[in-house]
Amino acid sequence: MQSVFIAFGILIQLFAYTVTAYHFIISLFAWFPKKEKELIVDKKHTFALVVAAHNEQCVIKSNVDSLKALNYDKDLYDIYVIADNCTDKTAEIAREAGAIVLERFNDKLRGKGHAMDWAFNEIFSGEKEYDAVCIFDADNVADGEFLNHINTRLCQGYEAVQGYIETKNPYDTWVTASYMINFAMMNKAFQTARYNVGLPNQLNGTGFALTTDILKKFGWGANCLAEDMEFTMKLLEKDILVGWAEKAIVYDEKPLTLSQSWKQRVRWAQGHADVASRYIPKLGKRFLKEGKLRYIDGIVYLTQPLVMMILGFVLVMSFIQGLYPDTKIWVNALEYVTPLFWTMISYGQILYLPFILWVEKKLTIKTVVYYIPYLFFVYTWMPISFVGVAKKNKKEWFHTQHTRAISVNEVK
Question: Which fold has domain 1-33+43-412?
Answer without folding.
Answer: Spore Coat Polysaccharide Biosynthesis Protein SpsA; Chain A (3.90.550)
